[in-house]
Amino acid sequence: MPASYAYLGPEGTFTEVALRTLPETATRELVPYVSVQSALDAVRTGEAEAAFVPIENSVEGGITTTLDELVAGEPLMIYREVLLSITFALLVRPGTALTDIKTVSAHPAAQPQVRNWMRKHLPDAHWESAASNADAARLVQEGRYDAAFAGEFAAARYGLQALETGIHDAENAQTRFVLVGRPARPAAPTGADKTSVVLWQRDDHPGGLRDLLGEFASRGINLMLLQSRPTGAGIGNYCFCIDAEGHISDRRMAEALMGLKRICLQVRFLGSYPRADIGPAEAPATRPGTSDEEFMAAADWVARCQDGRF
Known about the structure:
By secondary structure, this protein is α/β, with parallel strands linked by helices. The protein has 9 helices and 15 strands.
């Protein structure tokens, strides 16, 4: 049996479309799961080699369900990311007119991306969230709801009609998906990489977040995502999910993570992996004083000072 990849299902989700862009899926069994949690749990239990789930969109930011699952429970690691441009279709049972629609459904992350369109075209329709956009299409097929916002490609799968297409409130909207597996050695750096971590402060104090961010800033590391998530320990208790430019094998990133390990209550490493938005040739130049060579030269200078050779 081929190794399997779990993904947020059912069949016909944007997640499945993005997953199929990975070349290795030709040799994997792709298994849909009903939720992000169940897909990630399949990896934790060894039922699946990896899971493919959405983690961020360009309209609403981080997908909190995925972030919270990566924050809690047995550690997992991100190995790849994929960006997919997103536009929605309004899927209905054949013969349904726009004026017939009283209930619509989709994944909660879709609502901010179609809110204005819905206000204009379906002002009286009631929104109901579904486990995924494809699951919303399935529920329309079963007669539970009148319409679903999903990919146009899902219409044929569920015997529906695309009443409207090209729906989006923001031009060039994208969703970022990640391939998540059990912890192992990160892939070698490509020169255009991203490192993801979760940070917990030791205590709440003035400038606490500045102290965490300073470990990156002082080493010339640019942040790409910063999102706080409640820890569940009470109001005002948060951890911080961070994506930063660079790879853990870079001296500047390794030193930043060592600094964070010293000052944080806990640091969870979520992986270093290639960026999907740019290639190595387009990678931003490192800031002066932050290259591996300059870190090594500085360490050599300290060693010489310790030996009295300065």
